[in-house]
Design brief:
Length: 330
């Protein structure tokens, strides 16, 4: 497993999800290697040769360059205050009011540092024990987000266009950046490393043409501690399960906790021109969702969201594999 650090050289958009990163890597492979190499890379998924990639998350850095990795808080069984009060024999109104006030802040604390994240993986933390630990009150360094005003330019007249003001939401950070994880065999890692070095020069995503989403890329070895008696897994990527996986999760619903998101992206028009640029929408599980273990190495699939006949070039895939980490649910 590798960790990829993205140190920003400019402001950036917080939109580097697993499907976006995988799409960028595919374009990078096609650009610096060949279309045949890209077809071989994509076809490998059907033969069990799966390169898994997480979404990007944030990290902060202190004056000694020590990094603090921030992960999504695992989604587990929600804390029920009524059950909590009864279990802990809390009857006084004043004491109940204190916990009710705390729970509002607790629900907003959806980011955890690596230390607390590992406690969730090992089963030491669930919603209740994490709530009681007060660790969620630890300060998590937030990045500065600002709305930047822009004006459209008439490229023929080289003047601004009346009534064309618009804003973009951009993130600024001095001591930190983004990171994501990749996991695959040695050959896949080498190919991805070449693609990442390419984007180190040109930037990540559509806003790179205006100087945004420009990062210094660093790749290092990374691993998580083993989890004994794991009975579930958490995904650090957007996850599109296979049909048979969905059926099995229904059967084991007591160990399935999740949030859903509709993903509908645009085809990479700056790489190839096509009249239809919207891909088919898909309903996917969000990062941090937790599922019962099916004792598999890989979960999910890549699904065709635009047929070859619609763009005249090739089938377009949506990346949907879970970046699955073993987790112990109490």
């Amino acid at each position: 497993m590798k960790i990829v650090y993205l140190k920003p050289r400019s402001s950036f958009r917080d939109n580097l999800r697993s499907d976006t990163l995988w799409g960028l890597i595919c374009w990078g492979i096609k650009t610096i290697y060949s279309e045949e190499k890209l077809e071989e890379f994509i076809a490998g998924y059907k033969n069990g040769k799966v390169l898994k990639i997480s979404s990007s998350f944030r990290y902060t850095e202190d004056e000694n360059m020590k990094k603090e990795l921030l992960f999504p808080r695992p989604i587990t069984r929600p804390l029920n205050l009524n059950d909590f009060f009864e279990k802990n024999n809390i009857t006084e109104k004043k004491e109940k009011a204190k916990y009710i006030a705390d729970i509002k802040s607790f629900k907003k604390a959806t980011i955890v540092n690596k230390k607390n994240f590992l406690k969730f993986l090992s089963g030491e933390f669930n919603e209740e024990s994490y709530f009681l630990s007060k660790n969620w009150k630890d300060k998590v360094e937030l990045f500065k987000r600002e709305d930047i005003l822009h004006n459209s330019i008439d490229r023929l007249k080289n003047t601004t266009v009346d009534g064309s003001l618009f804003t973009t939401s951009e993130i600024f950070v001095e001591n930190g950046g983004l990171f994501f994880l990749i996991d695959g065999d040695e050959q896949q890692m080498k190919i991805v490393d070449g693609a990442l070095r390419y984007f180190n020069h040109i930037g990540f995503g559509g806003d790179s043409s205006t100087g945004k989403n420009s990062f210094d890329v660093t790749v290092e070895d990374f691993s998580f501690p083993d989890v004994s008696d794991a009975n579930a897994f958490i995904t650090l990527s957007l996850y599109l399960p296979k049909e048979e996986e969905s059926y099995k999760f229904v059967e084991a619903r007591e160990r399935v906790w999740y949030e859903l998101e509709t993903r509908k992206g645009k085809f990479g028009g700056h790489y190839i021109k096509t009249k239809r640029f919207w891909k088919d929408s898909l309903l996917m599980f969000k990062e941090g969702s937790v599922f019962s273990s099916l004792n598999k190495k890989n979960y999910g699939e890549n699904r065709v969201v635009m047929k070859k006949e619609e763009n005249g070039k090739f089938d377009v895939y949506q990346y949907g594999y879970a970046f699955n980490l073993p987790l112990k649910l109490k």
